[in-house]
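Residues and backbone
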Amino acid sequence: MSAKLNWIIFLITATLGIALRTVMLIFAVDSVSGFIKPEYVTPTIIIVFALTLGALLIFGSSLAVRKIADRDLNLRGILFSVSLFVFALAIIYETFFSNILFGVGLFQRLLHYLLAVGAVGSLIYIGILKLLKKRYLHILTLTPVIFLISRLIIVFSGFSSISAISDTIIETVAMCLALVTFLFYSKIECGQPTKKARFVFALSLLCGYVSAISSVPRIIADLFMIEQAIHLNPVPSFTGIAVAFFSVMFAYKFSVEK
């Protein structure tokens, strides 16, 4: 399969996935309890099945791209740096200006603030020096990974208040994929090129897809369902969009020549 065809499959599948989950959140979720409405149980099951099928299609088709080879990546460019800046902004907003840390203990809150500041500083530092084509401390690419571990623990702990099982599954998978994707990114930045380029390429696109369908529909649904109970839960929607953007940019570097 050609890389161009694979990107077309990804874009179509991601667009349909976002649309389907948006419909599910707006119409199938009860605005008071957060549970799936009884009359929409079957359609919801079909949508979840379709979303899962889309994930398998993206991952499988990406593994079949022939021109993805094990080689050094050129992890530079304006859009790649912008993806780092967007991720930094998402971290700032959801750490300091959202309710994601509601109910979190003081020590864990302070630790998360510290990790967020470290991750933001590192992302901005790396992004700027990439634009300037200057050398930078590659080990700092591990700071977003450490931050994501802290975020995963906090969000997962808050899932006890979420009634919709589909949301907890999608969000957990999205955050785990984000963590693994950034681990591979850090590994490559630290001078250890991966020996499984097709797998990392496929994993990055899968991360982009799952992150997109887990975040974009929630934001869209918020515009229509102001009192939707499920959207009051500590789920990092804007971070999800940032991770999706970064993952797509990271995957793109595998599909173009150096």
User: Anything to note?
Assistant: The chain has eight helices and no strands. Confidence is low (pLDDT under 50) at residues 226-233.
